[in-house]
Amino acid sequence: MTNVAEAATTPKAAVAARQVEQRRTLSKGALRTISILSPILVLVAWEIFSRAGLLEDRFFPAPTLIFQALWTEASSGELWAQSQHSLTRLVVGFLVGAIPAVLLGVAMGLNKIVNAAVRPIISALYPVPKSAVLPLFLLFFGLGEDTIWYFVAMGVFFPVVINTYTGVSNVSAIFYDVAENFGAKRFTVFRTVALPGAMPNVITGLELGAGMGLIMLAIAEMMGGQGNGWGFMVWNSFQLFTIESMYAYLLVFALVGLLLALIVGFVGHKLTPWITRH
Questions:
Q1: Fold of the CATH domain 64-271
Q2: Residue 185: predicted pLDDT
Q3: Could you give the CA distance from residue 33 to residue 14 in angstroms, rounded to a whole number?
Q4: How many Cα atoms sit within 13 Å of 97 on the Cβ side?
Q5: What whole-number distance in Å separates Cα of residue 220 and Cα of residue 181?
Q6: Using CB atoms within 10 A of its CB, is residue 239 exposed (0-12), middle (13-18) or buried (19+)?
Q7: Residue extents of the structural domains in the chain
Q8: Per-residue b/e over 181-192, b at no fewer than 16 CB within 10 Å?
Q9: How confident is the model at residue 101 (pLDDT cuts 50, 70, 90)?
Q10: Which stretch of 45-49, 167-171, 235-239, 268-272 has the lowest confidence by average pLDDT?
Q11: Closest listed residue to residue 97, CA positions, set 168, 145, 158
Q12: pTM for the structure as a whole
């Protein structure tokens, strides 16, 4: 054992370990560079093809024109006014959908009776096209902000509850047995076993739910008759055939979706530091 330990601390072994770490760091740096360069290259190719006439500029305007339209919307204050409406709806809808979804997912994973009662309903409702349900929401709740909140919440709810249930179910039974043997109460089991064990799946569900919430927000704002928000601006730009503005607000959706993914990923990294991420 001593010889092995000494061998591991020799200069040659230390050099080899440093080389492995350098290759790993270089690999991460290269992947990060690729992640940054790939969308830039797509935009450059799009710009060249559009300027050269290889793309129909009525339908695929050059990215510089799209960014110019976005700047015009921002400098006029229109973008910020619409963003206030959309961000409020997105945040409220996300919270309304995610919080009960996490609680219900944990309950399904811990209690077989709850799972047996709720899982068939979720399995039946999840595949229903969400855009087809909007008229039902308008019928129930009318034309109001709360209609959009609940519609966004529905999109967030299903990915979160399914992933949370999966995470809790995948926690090894031995952990629950140990908690039970030590006389842990249900809330203690929830707080110390079920939720930490399911957290990687919960984070995945939240990320998927945030993306689905954006999709539901766009549908509701285009069809809900509120007359404001990013989705309304996309639809209004289409009707007026100001294609650059339409793409500009689609770009806003994409950037907000990327930002949400980064925020959820950062929070997930802080909550689950034991998970190795590449």
A1: MetI-like fold (1.10.3720)
A2: 74
A3: 28
A4: 35
A5: 50
A6: exposed
A7: 2-51, 64-271
A8: eeebeeeebbee
A9: very high
A10: 268-272
A11: 158
A12: 0.79
